[in-house]
Each structure stands twice: as structure tokens, then as C-alpha cells.
Design a protein that fits this description.
mainly beta, 60s Ribosomal Protein L30, Chain: A, two-stranded antiparallel ribbon, 1 helix, 8% helix, globular, DUF296 domain-containing protein
């Protein structure tokens, strides 16, 4: 195992930067350990929804989690607004860093994460290849 710690800068797209790290570092299997910071724009797909919802304003990253691979990054984000209301869902491109985002990734070098269609869910689901 190894870790990658990176600070993202104001104006960067959170999901795009995560995907860029995955490609550049050739990550075949990994997870997000931690992500703290702020966002000025939030774009999420909620559970069971097809459309993406968007919010603008000041948001604090409350949590970010997900699996990382060349096949796909399956990422969930929760963020709070200035009133403390938490919004969460599938992280989509367009979540823009406000002041900073301190991101810590853990990479598993002994396995590879892939995606394969699962007829029972209708989605490409995780396969762990050793």
C-alpha cells in the first residue's frame, strides 16, 4: 500500500482532479481516506435520480469517500452550507474548490478494481481482481 496526499487549489474541479491523479499515478485500486476543504459550486446526483442537481454558494466538505480505479471512480460527497444543512450524493464534475481541499488517497498495489454489468442492479458494479 501507498498513500498520496495532495492539496487542491481554488477554482479546480474536485472530481476532475481526482480522476487526473488516478490516471497520472496509474492507480488500479484505491480509496479516498480523507478530504477536507471548501467548495463554491456543488454538483451531485442523488440516489435513484437520473438528473444532476447543482448549488452555488459556500460549502464545507463534510465527507468524501469512494473507490478509485482506471475503470471508474465511484465517489460520494457530503457538504454543508452556511446554515449547517448537509447535502450529499454522487460526486459529479463541476464541484469547484473554494479555498482549498486537502485530499488523502490510499492505493492498493496487490489488486485491481474493475467494473462489470450487474443485471440485478442495472449498473456496472465493482469487481476485485487479484
Amino acid at each position: 500500500m501507498k498513500q498520496i496526499t495532495k492539496r487542491l487549489l481554488p477554482g479546480q474541479d474536485l472530481r476532475a482532479e481526482i480522476e487526473k491523479i488516478v490516471k497520472e499515478q496509474e492507480i488500479k485500486a484505491g480509496v479516498i481516506l480523507s478530504g477536507v476543504g471548501s467548495l463554491t459550486n456543488l454538483r451531485l446526483r442523488m440516489a435513484g435520480a437520473k438528473e444532476v442537481k447543482e448549488w452555488s454558494g459556500e460549502f464545507e466538505i463534510v465527507s468524501i469517500t469512494g473507490t478509485l480505479s482506471q475503470a471508474d471512480c465511484h465517489l460520494h460527497l457530503s457538504a454543508s452550507n452556511p446554515e449547517g444543512t448537509v447535502i450529499g450524493g454522487h460526486l459529479k464534475q463541476g464541484c469547484i474548490i473554494g479555498t482549498t481541499c486537502e485530499l488523502v488517497l490510499m492505493i492498493f498495489e496487490e489488486v485491481e478494481y474493475k467494473r462489470a454489468p450487474d443485471p440485478s442492479t442495472g449498473y456496472d458494479e465493482l469487481e476485485v481482481c487479484e
